[in-house]
Amino acid sequence: MEREISFSGAFPVVARSTMRPGGWHIGFLCPNCRLHFAVMEDPTESGAVTLSGPARFQATCPHCKQEREYRVADMVVFEAAQGGPTSSA
Ligand SMILES: [Zn+2]
Question: How many CB atoms lie within 10 A of CB 59?
Fold first, then answer.
């Protein structure tokens, strides 16, 4: 079932240090180191979630420690695999 999450406003978000293997997560692709990191779990548990809204997210990449501002358009939904996240985007 397709669901939509709409964000508005500015959010400081914290990257999750652990991801549940096989679980779907919502996060960002760091443009600096090209690695994904998750900031929340996908409530649909399926990746069938649409993200929208004018929000801004202040997040620090847990891989290279670069802090930057992301937008909803930068969000990616991906399934975490054993040994690391795998992009579906
Ligand atoms: Zn990074």
Answer: 22
